[in-house]
Amino acid sequence: MESVFEIIAEPNRRAILSLLVSSQQSVGEIERQLRMSQPTVSKHLRVLREAGFVESTVDAQRRLYRLKPEPFQEVDAWLDQFRRFWSDHVDALERHLDRIDQAAATKRATPTKRKTRRKGRGANREPDKGEAK
After folding, report:
1. Tens of pLDDT, residues 17-76
2. Does domain 4-68 have CATH number 3.40.225.10?
3. CA distance to 33, 42, 73, per residue, from 25 (Å)
4. Alpha-carbon distance 6 to 90, whole Å?
5. DSSP string computed for 11-79
């Protein structure tokens, strides 16, 4: 039997699973939405059903497929270690960016001496008000 990861590695099966996240679907609905042939959809649904990812019920003349949570819980448990890893790294990045922001804010708040421009003393300069010519 294929592993959970081998099963979800196949792009068409992932596409089918993505459709089934929102609601149960018939083979025909999956065919139309993913533009796959009926035999292809049925083949992938069989693999997903045998692996426990989906289950089906009969509604009149249609077979409706829906997700089963158990295999996803297995994937979720495996991914949890990586979430902790990334969470620690993202937290460290956030702290670093906060320090940079605080340093920049402190730098902006510190008054700096502004250079003043001296007025030129050239002959063509207009005198200021109250200044002798």
Report:
1. 999 999 999 999 999 999 999 999 999 999 999 999 999 999 888 899 999 988 888 888
2. no
3. 10, 12, 22
4. 29
5. HHHHHHHHHHHHS-EEHHHHHHHHT--HHHHHHHHHHHHHTTSEEEEEETTEEEEEE-SHHHHHHHHHH
